[in-house]
């Protein structure tokens, strides 16, 4: 019976990848629990487990007495004689008895089995927690086996990983059975076992993708100094080369963009801007706001505030669609950026626009009013200004300012 039990434990070692010595210690503890249940908490015993030979031996030590007063520590001389011994023992001597598992009864054996299973589950949870805690920041590849309302469950080496909605790339679609790549972000301990959080939206995922696709980063020749990202929209990455012969941005982009395109595809077509890092804050801000052209930059280094002056036609480039460009630039540089629009001098507009060509934008009625007041082109409207145009019959100040803004936008679109 002992041999069969140890054989089942040995099989458990193989299936669950448990340490044999650790399992042996658990078995000693469990069978020690049986002895205490049957003979008392203070009983003197010894459990010997030989995993290699497939043997379990349990020994109980008691003192031989004439009359038993404490069964936990004493055994009568008559009972000793009944058991039979090769050597004659006397009252006052220690009696060591080898116990058989069958003597414990079915109830205690079942209790031991339940306790052992619980111990094994606890050890398995600890092994998984320790394994993935050491992998935080690394990329893993798993299969989606359940798609829920707010998260995904991913199978990785028979372990369950959680990809919450907050860590997913917006507008990315996932289906059961799909293979997904993500970075291990966090491992939490809970009463139900470790919860392994993975992420595709974290900056660390982008960093690891750069290391995979760009050997110079993996080898340490190029350093990633900063990352700013809005998952699924756009990202900015500041890089610096440790070798003057290597262009950091060029190496990251690759020939015909092949390296960066591989990362973009993985991130569901997220646009990625790679810029050269600089210790000079003004230079860094200029690069972070590219491709916009800036006229002047004022810094408050203590408050980490930056004021940028630019022509009106550059403001839309600075801000970007839905403000994403300027938000990422602020994250990348650590400065809050304010933009001051400087109006472009009229003489810098190379191609004027006839008002008759703007009937759709301004309405035919407005164009007729302007032409009747001897204003024929868009530049002439800007030269007059909103207050002057507001004096024309049928146009108030609010309408005049709207006309000016529409015309400015037309010039920016032309450029």
Features:
single chain, 415 residues, alpha/beta, N Utilization Substance Protein A, Chain:P, domain 4, OB fold (Dihydrolipoamide Acetyltransferase, E2P), GMP Synthetase, Chain A, domain 3, 5-stranded mixed β-barrel, 4-stranded mixed sheet, 16 helices, 15 strands, 41% helix, 25% strand
Helix count equals 16
- Largest pleated sheet: 5 strands, mixed, barrel
CATH top level label of the largest domain: Alpha Beta
In CATH, the architecture of the largest domain is 2-Layer Sandwich
CA radius of gyration = 39 Å
CATH fold title of the largest domain? N Utilization Substance Protein A, Chain:P, domain 4
| Alpha-beta classification | alpha/beta
Order of strands in the sheet with most strands: 5-6-7-9-8
Task: State the end-to-end distance.
Answer: 90 Å
Strand share of the residues?
25-35%
Give a count of the beta strands, DSSP E runs of length 2 or more: 15
Helix content: 40-55%
Number of structural domains: 5
Low-confidence residue ranges = none
Quote the average pLDDT. 85
Describe the SSE topology.
Layout: H1 2-16, H2 20-39, E1 44-50, E2 55-65, E3 74-76, H3 77-83, E4 94-99, H4 105-133, E5 139-147, E6 151-156, E7 159-164, E8 179-188, E9 195-199, H5 203-213, H6 215-218, E10 222-230, E11 234-241, H7 248-253, H8 258-266, E12 271-276, H9 281-288, E13 296-300, E14 305-311, H10 312-319, H11 324-333, E15 336-342, H12 359-362, H13 364-372, H14 378-384, H15 386-389, H16 397-414
Parallel strand pairs: 2-3, 7-9, 11-12, 14-15
Antiparallel strand pairs: 1-2, 2-4, 5-6, 5-8, 6-7, 8-9, 10-11, 13-14
């Amino acid at each position: 019976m002992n041999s069969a039990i140890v054989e089942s434990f040995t099989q458990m070692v193989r299936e669950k990848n448990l340490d044999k010595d650790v399992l042996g210690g658990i078995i000693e503890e469990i069978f020690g629990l049986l002895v205490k249940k049957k003979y008392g908490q203070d009983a003197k015993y010894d459990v010997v487990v030989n995993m290699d030979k497939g043997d379990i031996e349990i020994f109980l030590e008691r003192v031989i007495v004439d009359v038993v007063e404490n069964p936990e520590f004493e055994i009568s001389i008559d009972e000793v004689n009944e058991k039979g011994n090769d050597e004659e023992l006397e009252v006052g001597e220690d009696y060591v008895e080898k116990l058989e598992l069958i003597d414990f009864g079915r109830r205690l054996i079942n209790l031991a089995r339940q306790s052992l299973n619980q111990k094994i589950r606890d050890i398995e949870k600890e092994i998984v927690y320790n394994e993935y805690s050491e992998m935080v920041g690394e990329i893993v590849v798993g299969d989606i086996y359940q798609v829920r309302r707010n998260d995904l469950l991913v199978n990785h080496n028979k372990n369950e990983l959680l990809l919450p909605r907050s860590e997913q790339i917006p507008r990315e679609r996932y289906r059961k059975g799909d293979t997904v790549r993500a970075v291990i972000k966090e491992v939490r301990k809970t009463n139900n076992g470790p919860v392994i959080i993975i992420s595709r939206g974290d900056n660390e995922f982008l960093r690891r993708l750069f290391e995979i696709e760009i050997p110079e980063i993996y080898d340490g020749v190029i350093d990633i100094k900063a990352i700013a990202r809005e998952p699924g929209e756009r990202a900015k990455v500041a890089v610096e080369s440790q070798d003057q012969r290597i262009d950091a941005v060029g190496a990251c982009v690759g020939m015909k963009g092949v390296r960066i395109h591989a990362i973009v595809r993985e991130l569901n077509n997220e646009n990625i801007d790679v810029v050269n890092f600089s210790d000079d804050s003004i230079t860094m801000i200029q690069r972070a706001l590219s491709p916009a052209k800036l006229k002047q930059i004022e810094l408050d280094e203590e408050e980490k505030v930056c004021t940028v002056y630019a022509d009106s036609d550059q403001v839309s480039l600075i801000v970007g669609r839905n403000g994403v460009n300027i938000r990422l630039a602020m994250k990348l540089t650590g400065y809050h950026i304010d933009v001051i629009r400087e109006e472009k001098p009229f003489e810098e507009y190379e191609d004027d626009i006839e008002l008759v060509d703007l009937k759709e934008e301004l309405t035919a009625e407005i164009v007729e009013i302007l032409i009747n007041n001897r204003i024929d082109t868009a530049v002439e409207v800007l030269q007059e200004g909103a207050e002057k145009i507001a004096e024309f019959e049928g146009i108030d100040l609010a309408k005049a300012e709207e006309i000016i803004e529409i015309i400015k936008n037309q010039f920016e679109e032309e450029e």
